[in-house]
């Protein structure tokens, strides 16, 4: 069974302690970015994602910063 839980920061440590009381294979914890990273990497590998060379993006950032001076 899969569940998505939102834990308030002030209870995170207690929640993690509770999880440690369960058998090691009872719970699989995925970080919140895991699904997004997987989705984006599949999109990139399939060729559906529009990309541009690093230098081009860097030039655009540099131009924007210089225009603010």
Describe this structure as you would to a colleague:
By secondary structure, the protein is mainly alpha-helical. It has one domain (9-67). It is 52% helix and 0% strand. The protein has helices at 12-20, 34-46, 54-67. The longest helix is centred in the last third of the chain and has 14 residues, at 54-67.
Quick tags:
69 residues; mainly alpha
Task: Write a brief structural summary.
The chain has 69 residues and is an all-alpha fold. Helices cover 52% and strands 0% of the residues.
Question: Which secondary structure elements does this structure contain, and how are they paired or packed?
Answer:
Blueprint: H1 12-20, H2 34-46, H3 54-67
Oligomer: single chain
Number of strands: 0
Task: Report helical residue fraction.
Answer: 40-55%
Derived from helix and strand composition plus strand pairing, the structural class reads mainly alpha
Gap between N and C termini, in Å? 55 Å
The topology string of helices and strands comes to HHH
Give the DSSP E fraction (strand runs of 2 or more residues).
under 5%
Rg is: 21 Å
Number of helices: 3
Major beta-sheet overview = none
> What is the approximate shape?
elongated
Summed up, the domain count is 1
Unreliable spans: none
Mean pLDDT: 90
């Amino acid at each position: 069974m899969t569940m998505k839980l939102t834990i308030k920061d002030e209870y995170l440590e207690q929640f993690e302690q509770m999880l440690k009381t369960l058998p090691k294979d009872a719970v699989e914890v995925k970080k919140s970015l895991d699904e997004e990273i997987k989705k984006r990497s599949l999109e990139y590998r399939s060729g559906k994602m529009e990309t541009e060379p690093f230098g081009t993006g860097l030039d655009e950032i540099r131009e924007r910063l210089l225009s603010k001076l």
